[in-house]
């Protein structure tokens, strides 16, 4: 039998519906246990996803010696505590984005995992989609000319559900944490550099715990290239990224959550248009496989350990700018 990474899931969050089946469909892993602070919820999740073991506390799961790695889909304010506790228990960690509440927390988590000798990865599944490498090849080929800017959007309307954990400021709620992190991460990855400054404007809603329900931002990158983005939890669904060059542009209609009916991306160049739909992939499964191979030393992590710290640094600046209505230098 091929080598398998035994996974445990800490938390019965809704995102498990995408991640758990993807791990189970991978060639490298199997989910053998799930935990919730509510035993009945843990049992229900185990039955739903055909997971053999369940626990009524996170501590119990971490004591399970069969488990090699844990997936943490908990609310943002719990990421640091349970990542560090998992690392101290000798478990590798795949933690949902954003990794932490700020860059300092993220650095603490990275350091703790390094000290424990375990792998830590932030669950930015979109980066595992094979089309991203193809897009970078198109950019490097010069087909769209010199890069001039990026434009990203990730919005949805969940405002009616006032009990949503995303509306708890003290839990790391808000649209920048939840979906704005995606275009920020994508721009950093595509440009291969870090922004120099951030300027943002946000709608902080008293109806939703005071969190940012919408945010529009500008990130200044080296070379006078900028990312303009908007994110929100109180707007129609959008999920796109556009990369603009002097001679053309690349449009990615399902940039972070691909739709099988859409092309992977569309290239406009010198008055011509072509669609690229070469990649059919479950990015969550690819994420699980890459993580397992990195644990076994068969492959490098897709993102270096400092990447989530750097992304949080930008998120910190965006939120600070929105609150202070000022340009924040990085």
UniProtKB/TrEMBL annotation:
<dbReference type="InterPro" id="IPR036291">
    <property type="entry name" value="NAD(P)-bd_dom_sf"/>
</dbReference>
<dbReference type="Pfam" id="PF01408">
    <property type="entry name" value="GFO_IDH_MocA"/>
</dbReference>
<comment type="similarity">
    <text>Belongs to the Gfo/Idh/MocA family.</text>
</comment>
<dbReference type="Pfam" id="PF22725">
    <property type="entry name" value="GFO_IDH_MocA_C3"/>
</dbReference>
<dbReference type="InterPro" id="IPR055170">
    <property type="entry name" value="GFO_IDH_MocA-like_dom"/>
</dbReference>
<dbReference type="GO" id="GO:0000166">
    <property type="term" value="F:nucleotide binding"/>
</dbReference>
<dbReference type="InterPro" id="IPR050984">
    <property type="entry name" value="Gfo/Idh/MocA_domain"/>
</dbReference>
<dbReference type="GO" id="GO:0016491">
    <property type="term" value="F:oxidoreductase activity"/>
</dbReference>
<protein>
    <submittedName>
        <fullName>Gfo/Idh/MocA family oxidoreductase</fullName>
    </submittedName>
</protein>
<feature type="domain" description="GFO/IDH/MocA-like oxidoreductase">
    <location>
        <begin position="134"/>
        <end position="251"/>
    </location>
</feature>
<keyword id="KW-0560">Oxidoreductase</keyword>
<dbReference type="InterPro" id="IPR000683">
    <property type="entry name" value="Gfo/Idh/MocA-like_OxRdtase_N"/>
</dbReference>
<feature type="domain" description="Gfo/Idh/MocA-like oxidoreductase N-terminal">
    <location>
        <begin position="5"/>
        <end position="122"/>
    </location>
</feature>
């Amino acid at each position: 039998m091929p080598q398998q990474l035994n996974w445990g899931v800490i938390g019965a969050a809704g995102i498990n519906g995408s991640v758990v089946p993807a791990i189970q469909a991978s060639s490298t892993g199997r989910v053998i246990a799930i935990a919730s602070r509510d035993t009945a919820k843990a049992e229900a999740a185990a039955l739903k996803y055909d997971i053999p073991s369940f626990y009524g506390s996170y501590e119990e799961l971490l004591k399970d010696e069969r488990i090699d790695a844990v997936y943490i889909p908990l609310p943002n304010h719990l990421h640091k505590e349970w990542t560090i506790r998992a690392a101290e228990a000798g478990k590798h960690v795949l933690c949902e984005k954003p990794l932490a509440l700020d860059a300092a927390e993220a650095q603490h988590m990275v350091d703790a995992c390094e000290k424990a000798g375990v792998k830590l990865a932030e669950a930015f599944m979109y980066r595992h989609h094979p089309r991203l490498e193809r897009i970078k090849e198109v950019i490097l080929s010069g087909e769209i000319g010199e890069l001039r800017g990026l434009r990203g959007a990730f919005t949805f309307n969940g405002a009616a559900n006032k009990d949503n954990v995303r509306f708890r400021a003290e839990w790391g709620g808000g649209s920048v944490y939840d979906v704005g992190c995606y275009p920020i991460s994508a721009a950093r990855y595509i440009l291969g550099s870090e922004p120099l400054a951030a300027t943002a404007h946000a709608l902080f809603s008293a109806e939703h715990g005071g969190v940012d329900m919408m945010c529009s931002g500008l990130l200044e990158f080296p070379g006078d290239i900028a990312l303009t983005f908007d994110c929100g939890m109180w707007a129609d669904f959008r999920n796109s990224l556009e990369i603009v060059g002097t001679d053309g542009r690349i449009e990615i209609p399902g940039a972070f959550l691909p739709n099988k009916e859409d092309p992977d991306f569309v290239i406009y160049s010198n008055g011509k248009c072509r669609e690229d739909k070469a990649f059919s992939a479950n990015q969550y499964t690819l994420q699980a496989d890459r993580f397992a191979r990195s644990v076994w030393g068969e492959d490098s992590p897709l993102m270096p350990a400092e990447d989530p710290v750097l992304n949080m640094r930008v998120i910190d600046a965006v939120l600070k700018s929105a609150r202070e209505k000022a340009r924040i230098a990085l």
